Amino acid sequence: GKHQLLSVDQFTRETVEELCSLADIMQPIARRQKVSRVLEGAVLGNLFFEASTRTRVSFGSAFCRLGGSVCDTTGFTFSSMAKGESIYDTSRVMSGYVDAMVIRHPEQGSVAEFARATNIPVVNGGDGAGEHPSQALLDLYTISTEFSRLGKLLDGAHIALVGDLKYGRTVHSLIKLLGMYRGLKFTLISPPGLEMPEHIVEQVAKQGKHVIEQTSSLEKGLPGVDVIYATRVQKERFEEGQDGSFTADFQVNKAIIDRCCGPDVIVMHPLPRDSREGAHDLSVDLNHDPRLAIFRQADNGIPVRMAIFAVLLGVETLVQHSMRDVTW
Ligand code: CP
């Protein structure tokens, strides 16, 4: 059968928790205490037709740390799609060269098109404003590990999703994954015009007894939350002439967190955060604040992506036996 990761809709709470347990097993490799060669001889094709640092490098690193190797084709310029080659032909050809593909592409649905043309495992590394399932899985893993440390449960948690909820594909995937838990309260805080798509809100409302509130005010939305998940305003996906001048009002910074939240709040962001003048989604004044989880979150990309490969390539039960101590 086909082994693909295209959408979080493929998961149940049980399979998400199995993946998180497998990520825990991978942690000694991610932390460079152990090594494994379980994917020795396997080759990953990393096909990124849109900018990426974390997803591209962490998928590549995760594959290499399990003993495999990586071929990169980054950007349309370096692929024959620049000469008009179709997704179908590209995918068929790549299937003969590599054992799994991770694909990022600016058009929603395009990664599913790659997947339909091949029998090798395909992972959606982000398809336009569609989904980013591996990011949502590592975000859920992060919330779960941070909550364990704080003695909190995911059931009943209060989560604020902040910023560009219309074009931010990571929040589209994450809210559906969180919706698999019980009795959550979601506060969706976005500038006017960048609200979470209605069909996703409806899907999550049907998943369980959740409270879903929407506001355009950080001051009103933040009090009482357990997690603040900030996002970058994705101006590159704006329609012609769409105004993006409101972004400064949505900056998550130390002052507003000190004013509205307690000492146990977790501040997350899928990254990259925009450091350019006038586009601050998450302030740097939290960089040394322990409530800022963004770098722990980015680090979790390695064990979670190792777990994804182990499942897709059918080696999940071999991993533990293949671990050895590091010799370097
Ligand atoms: N979070 C994330 O997808 O980052 P990159 O765009 O750098 O891959």
TrEMBL record:
Catalysed reactions, semicolon-separated: carbamoyl phosphate + L-aspartate = N-carbamoyl-L-aspartate + phosphate + H(+)
**Listed GO molecular functions?**
amino acid binding; aspartate carbamoyltransferase activity
Which residues are in the Aspartate/ornithine carbamoyltransferase Asp/Orn-binding domain?
156-311
As recorded in UniProt, coiled-coil segments are none
Gene source species: Alcaligenes aquatilis
> Has keyword Transferase?
yes
Q: What exactly does this protein do? A: Catalyzes the condensation of carbamoyl phosphate and aspartate to form carbamoyl aspartate and inorganic phosphate, the committed step in the de novo pyrimidine nucleotide biosynthesis pathway.
Q: Which GO terms describe its cellular component?
A: cytosol
Listed A to Z, the keywords are: Pyrimidine biosynthesis, Transferase
The organism's superkingdom is given as: Bacteria
- Stated name of the protein: Aspartate carbamoyltransferase
An annotated GO BP: 'de novo' UMP biosynthetic process
- The Aspartate/ornithine carbamoyltransferase carbamoyl-P binding domain sits at 4-144
Q: In which pathway does it act?
A: Pyrimidine metabolism; UMP biosynthesis via de novo pathway; (S)-dihydroorotate from bicarbonate: step 2/3
Similarity comment text for this entry: Belongs to the aspartate/ornithine carbamoyltransferase superfamily. ATCase family.
Stated EC number for the protein is: 2.1.3.2
